[in-house]
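Try it yourself: sequence plus iron/sulfur cluster, in.
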Amino acid sequence: MTNALDLTELIKMLEKVEEIELENIDMIAGEVGFILPTISAIKRASVKKAEYLDLDFEIPLANFPSEVLEVELGATKANGGTRENVIKVGGERTMPFYNFEALNPNEPVIAFDVFDTKIHLAGPVRKHFEDVLEDPAEWAKRCVDKYGADMVTIHLISTDPAIKDTSAREAAKTVEDVLQAVKVPIMIGGSGNPDKDPEVLEKAAEAAAGERCVINSASMSLDYKRIAKACLDYGHVVLSWTSLDINDQKTLNKYLIDLGIKREDIIMDPTTAALGYGLEYSFSIMERIRLAALKGDKDLQMPIASGTTNAWGAREAWMENPEWGDREKRGPLWEAVTALTLCLAGSDLFMMMNPTAMQLFRDVIKCLCGFKETGSLDIKDWIGMR
Amino acid sequence: MAKKIGPLDIYNYLPKTNCGECGEKTCMAFASQLIERAVKLEDCPTLKQPNFAGRYYSLKEMLAPSVKEVIVGFGDKAVKIGGEEIIFRHELTYFNKTAIALDVHDEMNDDELLERVRYVNDFCFKRIGEELTLDLVAIRSTSNDPDRFAQCVSKVLDEVKKPLILCSWNPSVLEAGLKIVGHERPLIYAATKDTWEWVGRLAVKYNCPVVAFADDNMAELKSVVKALVSMGVEDIVLDPGSHVEGKYLANTFGNFVASRRTAIWNKDIGYPLLGVPATVWLSGGDASKEVMIAAIMIDKYADLIILHTPEIWALLPIITLRQNIYTDPRKPVAVEAGLRRFGNPDENSPVLMTTNFALTYYTVASDLESAGVDCYLLVIDTEGLGVEASVAGGKLDAFKANEAIKNSGIEEEVKHRKIIIPGFSARISGDLEIQSGWEVLVGPRDSSSIEDFIEKKWSGLA
Ligand code: B12
Ligand code: SF4
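Structure, out:
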């Protein structure tokens, strides 16, 4: 062999010869073990001995040392509330639907959004609620009775000074109305105005005392100490909301715990970016949070919530555009795919608003949970489908 | 779990001369880049010399991805699948995006058949500066008749600009198809416990990649794979069966996860995965359900999926999800900052401002293009952050915006001193007016209403 040979030629040579001499090839210890298989692979192509052996397959298991906390939402009469049922979220022992490793105890939970004043909604959402947009109690009822939502979130957006500046006291009344109208556990959200929200959420928490609602939310951008105190005083769960930053999430959770909130009384919302608008950020942050929890990070072991409704902010969801096809189909899918993807990343609780999206999402997660019995199909028939 | 290879392991096999010809300063730096797959072994000229062949092969073996990269198709029609190295995308990045095939069958009438093929050829959806496409055509033999299949394959071949998947459980049908298109490296679907020998022989003869199939039975799947390997088949794709109903869907999901873990942790059966969301149509499913199944598979490990629906409203969420999941988390998706022109702007044309986050820039750009307005767009370097995030994170403030105005040369291009800024950056408007001496108009929050805004607010002003 001469030095002028290049590699491709060398390979060609190797293919032809039965035995090769390795002199002149610079080698370091251990390397022969690598080069020989390569050569034999080349030779194998011509001398093959085909055989089928019945082999075993063992699924490699992760054996996570820790688990996610289980948080109870809603309180029945026995526990000082008026809810008909209690919902459990979290409690995972492995990544979502890794049933071969462990069966996670609780199904993902779906909470429908209700607003305390008529707001602009995308067409495919609005058509389901057109006649109840000005009556939050009826709106909530529709979500539960007709569409089967596990929970509802009453968003007190009209309290925003830029919207209607509804007083905290009046907003608290709306919360009472919703609690009367439905018997499922509820979440209570502010308007997002950092100056007004603490007062609004305090009054709302008081009006719902003992019901174990989720208070949405404590975040770094407002006086979260007041929110935390209201949750402590009136027996609610706090939603700890940060913006796509795992360290921020850890920090805020710690602050809340330092204020006396029990770890079992926190749900995290690390922010949902919609399909096509940064979904990958939410996906990876949720996966990282969930893996950290399963590996034992105590500050991140709370269940995760997703503001899936953000999907309707994507123009592909709401906009009429003939080039994008039927909006009535496309919009709900935008929301459902956002939910499903974040569900696979580790989210437990989904704030949603379109009934079709919820149905699509719920159908597949029921299957993925592994509880749903069906007949087996001969999937090999797919080739012959006409 | 197999030990992860570090830069030092790689370095030991490099020439250690630090000559810099690879573009890296040192061999050690080159080693780190190799692990990140930012460079190729062939970038080091020394390694290509014959006396380094031993080391070259050792490195090749050490750096081979845990999931083999398989090429379907030939020449400019080729599609790469697999080549993955990690379980979770935040650990590095996913490399080859899930390829998407649309199906046709050999009993379709010619018009329908060719229309579908052209649909796949021409499908191109621009999103964030990227062209999102469909990647393959899967031909199913519903007739189970070798001649009919061969005829169909040759009709498709005349028209198609994408690689093919030949689908039949009957090896003689596959063989008939391969006689027509075997030279173009189609993917053969599929070899099973019963047919592996015949189908494997075809794969070797035509040098084509082949799918190993077993229905919800990973032990059997592994056995088929090893049987194929024993005959010298190198390019294999795994189909653990795509169930879409009840607990069987859970099993399918589990099989996908188990395959990927086995490939990466145990370095065993490391081949790309194939999913078939099209099976939803077997049990009265519909396109929406097919999208949901496709989403599960894209999220968790499918390297190739076969779809049945051509509906755009169904494909749009699928290709968007794929684009998201396969975005490289290591680098911000940014465009170059600076002044851009849309249409033929003159000294009276509107000036607008945005950030250099790719998603933001392309959204605004496409809105401006479809509005057909002549204008200038000043793209600010916010380190790849969108408007809201950069304002919140302090990457877009009056100081930065003013600098961009002064350095861009826009003051020589236009006579007026008026700039439209995004609605979400309203809070910088006061300071920006003071610092720049420009009049600042706060535009709408969503760039889709820019056209309207310019019509109403600018035309009156200018
Ligand atoms: C993805 C995301 C991120 C990603 C960044 C992605 C990126 N490269 O920009 C990451 C994770 C890095 C991130 C970080 C932060 N984020 Co962030 N993030 C988001 C999220 C989910 C989506 C933003 C997005 O990409 N939108 C899509 C793009 C296209 O929108 P856009 O750039 O605004 O462009 C639109 C309009 O502005 C307009 N437009 C654009 N240009 C122009 C030009 C003209 C002339 C006109 C008229 C209009 C116009 O049209 C465009 C299309 O609609 C939002 C929440 C949401 N809205 O869903 C939060 C959000 C923007 N983030 C927020 C925050 C607080 C942050 C952080 C400060 C948090 C932190 N803990 O550090 C950091 C800041 C970054 C930093 N480190 O400096 C807040 C901002 C709150 C506020 N309004 O003040 C938001 C709203 C979340 C929230 N509700 O709290 N974020
Ligand atoms: S070209 Fe090769 S020898 Fe030279 S620095 Fe790069 S890796 Fe080292």
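One thing you can check immediately is this: Residues B 14-15, 17-22, 24, 26-27, 30, 44, 46 surround iron/sulfur cluster (ligand 2) (CB under 6 Å).
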